[in-house]
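User: I want to check something. If I give you two sequences, will you return the structure for each one separately, not as a complex?

Assistant: Yes, each is folded on its own. Here is the first sequence with its structure:
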Amino acid sequence: MKLKVIKIDGASAGSVELVDEIFGLDPRVDILHRVVRWQRNKAQAGTHKVKTRSETSYSRKKIYRQKGTGGARHGDRNAPIFRKGGVYKGPTPRSHAHDLPKKVRTLGLKHALSAKAKEGALVVLDKATASGKTSELAKQVKQLGWKRALVIDGVEVNGEFAQAARNIEGLDILPTIGANVYDILKRDTLVLTKAGVEALEARLK
């Protein structure tokens, strides 16, 4: 698959050949769903907590005698049946993460890249460089028509470009190692630098 390469100002910078094994697959929704679900579950804090009857702040005294009242038998007010009593089998802090084979995760990233290429939402940038000024980069991004874009650079992100992009709404930048299915699918446009393409191909082959 051949794709045009552009500069940050929109000028042409030749073309690049993309590997079909990574960018030319027929996207499978089931694989993308599995990887995104694995990512989001792993990121979930799992800090939800309720108080059980041993943790609520009430007297431990038996509220009335066992027999002779004509009512049900009760112990103390901490029982789950009472208002403000302990919660029975409520949520406790835990990890929501689950296992997913590494091959499936790798395949998911390939399908996410292929999905963007198939949509025509994949852009190859010559270099992600900027003067460090946000206003200048914001103007260039607007001219290119990127509203919700993710830029994936090579092994390291250019410091001046990252500084200029930091306060531009809808523009995010990641190094190749940070490329993931969820962030790719969430954005309208995926921008890969030439260094990013080379690093991704080396990572996914």
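And separately, the second sequence with its own structure:
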Amino acid sequence: MITKSQLKIKRGFDLLVVIVVLPFLFIPIWVLVCIASIDTKRFGIYSQYRIGQHGKPFKIYKIRTLRDGNHQLGHLNDYASNVGKFLRKTKLNELPQLFNVLIGDMSLVGPRPDLQGFADELKGEDRIILKVKPGITGPATLKYKHEERVLERQKDPIRYNRTIIWVDKVKINKKYVENYSFYLDLTLILKSTLNK
């Protein structure tokens, strides 16, 4: 199981990486924000409350990809522009989460941060997942990198997400925390980079 010293090393590594890469990515991120602002006719940064470490809510930042509409789980791409679909497919819309890592809300690797009603309702041994900060990538993220496509094929995407995908993600994320190592994080970062 992940220890306090491992959590400190993990945080130090996150800060080091973000401080090194953000100066190179700041201008590209700003360009994408401007493009998204023109494309969606709204400010190109989107924020939403998610559940973080120890069950505490925080604001996550993304590049806006959706037009106005009654967005439904499993049909989000129906509201995305062509630019938005590209950003979602390539995960470039998640680049602003580097700022979440910088300020300490997130980690480079960990369980993906969920909306209220999921991680904050974990019980018993499953709450071990909340020991770590949510991540930009992680083992469950890699397995479900095409999650939106899977949900689009379901008659009841909300129920399928809660009863099938979420249950599996909990198992995967528990295993990640229970078997944590710095080498595991490096491996997951490498896999995420190669699987773009």
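Because they were folded independently, the notes below concern the second chain alone. The mean pLDDT is 92. The helical segments are 4-40, 82-90, 97-103, 139-143, 147-152, 157-178, 182-194.
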